[in-house]
Amino acid sequence: MTLPALLLALAVQEAPPLPIRYTLELVEPATPLVALTVEVAGDVDGTSEFSLAEGWAGIAEAGRDLELVEARGESDLLASERLHSYSWSVAHSPGERLTLTFELGPTRHRANRGPPGYYLPILEEGLLHALGAQTLPAPAHLAGDEARAITLEWRGWKTVSSFGVGALVETTLALDPYRHALFAAGELRLAELELAGGTLAVSVFGAWSFRDEEFVALAERIVTLERDFFAEPTRPYYFISLIPVGAGGGSSWGGTGLTNSFALFMTPDNTLATDAGGGGLAWLLAHEHFHEWNGHVIQLAQPEPLGYWFSEGFTDFYTRRLLARAGLLTREQELASWNRKLAGLQSNPERRAPATRVEEAFWTVPAAGELPYQRGDLMALYADHAIRTRSHGERSLDDALRALVARSRAGEGPFTSAQLVDALGEFAGPEAEAALLAWAVDGVEPELAGGLRAPGLRLVPGDVPSFDTGFEHEATLKNGVVSGVRSGGPAARAGLVDGMKLESWSVTHGDPYREVELRVRVGAETKVLRYLPQGASVPGLRMEAE
User: Fold this and answer.
1) Cβ 274 vs Cβ 283: under 8 Å
2) CB proximity list for 7: less than 8 A, separation 6 or greater
3) Beta strands 189-194 and 138-139: pairing type?
4) Largest CB tally within 10 Å, which of 29, 76, 107, 202?
């Protein structure tokens, strides 16, 4: 290689990663209409593809709300093609600077009472609520895991995102976590709290039964509680959003943890109260914020669903434990939470499925989707008991989890299930390690009723109700007409009859302790039916106070 060629090659190698700039402009407030532009240097091969995240959280046809209206190079308009609902291709000169302009019109996704519908871009008069991976087209020729300068400019409204408050936000971050983030604008009621490490931003939209200040205080308490648990009180900026969702009656809530943020979706009838079974807003906030460590710091190796027993199940375990320690769950609520989970596991037809089944069916089969939460919660109890027993009470699962966080911050990971179990085995011992690995990978449960304990609690054999909706709910949902109501079953006792038209329903699959709520049409009248989906009792496990 000649000297000039060598110098050119070195210059190319040392060039910083290409920057990218996004602009979100409210061009028609009343319609509303948003212009979204992406500015970046194109691929050196002369063709660049831009795409959204198809399939995440079960989303199909991502991008159907976006329209590419113009692709421009440094001097001319460029030819473009829509490849799928979620991807576009642009032809240009090699490495040419590109400006793509998309339009986002009004959507109705906030009418969805559950995911994944409300994960799609929500644009209404006075509100934009967007997850980056479903809203910000990413250039495929840029590595998603390579840190680069990313600029976001807002034009036309009050804004907040995972990266700060204000009209211009500049950061250096890899494109993947940048797009796995939250962006909101409009008539937001915004609170900014200065915690030890930086700002906690909380935005509230819509009307609620509680005051904004009450919600903000609960969010602050939970964020502080979990930062203190990990001895990381100085973590930086974090953003929580709350918006109402759902059309029609029924109570529902959900959310998703994102980069430096948590998006919370609830039907307007919800309150801040914790229910008798330990569920409610405090649980949801604590669970999702715990993912800042278990999921974001401690990362799972691909494919991630193989390790959901850890990221979801252990997170449920610590949601309950930390809320109880803080007095946000009573002992009765803590026990009820355990027993709901144990009954759900006992009724789960996928109970002994291997991890590969979870990977295959997590987003499509409700029982498979519930399994890692149920299994992992119990695995955490088993590991905690083994560590306490082996250390004569001097250590617990708390120590193992903090050690994993420290290893992750030192650069280890992402972790496979085998590596996670190995890390737990350092504290729990080889026998417990072998049992946990068989459980996590192959679905083989160890003996569980032999004195398994946590502080103030013990696991005992006992009859538990099976989960039973009392009618053929899958066929009913498909056809919109109630069918298969079983005589003498829980649905029949609540007044459900074959032939009623189903308008909506709310159910927590696998949980016989949470009410099913059905809205059905009887002639010109709409009726709301509520009942516990409990079938015959079966032998299982129960948690009781010592």
Assistant:
1) yes
2) none
3) unpaired
4) 202
| Domains (range + CATH), the chain | 18-148 (2.60.40.3650), 304-446 (1.10.390), 466-540 (2.30.42)
Q: How far apart are CA 400 and CA 436, in angstroms?
A: 14
Sorted by sequence, the CB contacts under 8 Å of residue 65 that are 6+ apart come out as 104, 105, 107, 120, 121, 123
Higher pLDDT, 320 or 58: 320
- The yes-or-no verdict on residue 6 having pLDDT over 70 is no
Burial class (CB in 10 A: 0-12, 13-18, 19+), 308: buried
**Cα–Cα distances in angstroms (integers) from residue 16 to residues 46, 149, 150, 362, 404, in the given order:** 20, 9, 13, 39, 32
Cα dist. 409→124, 238, 288 in Å?
40, 19, 20
Distance CA 505, CA 530 (A): 10
In angstroms, the CA 356 to CA 303 distance is 10
Three-state secondary-structure class, residue 263: strand
3-state secondary structure of 233: coil
Length of the chain, please? 546
- Give me the chain's average pLDDT, please: 91
Query: What is the average per-residue pLDDT within 93-105?
Result: 97
DSSP 171-228: EEEEHHHHHSSEEEEES-EEEEEE-SSSEEEEEE-S--SS-HHHHHHHHHHHHHHHHH
User: What single DSSP character describes residue 152?
Assistant: E
Give, as one character, the DSSP assignment of residue 541: E
In this predicted model, what pLDDT tens digit does every residue of 200-211 receive, in sequence order?
Answer: 999 999 999 999
The token duo for 220 is 């602050």
Question: In which element (H, E) is residue 243 found?
Answer: strand 238-244
Contact predicate 29/125, CB 8 Å:
yes
Q: CA–CA separation, 112 vs 266, rounded Å?
A: 10
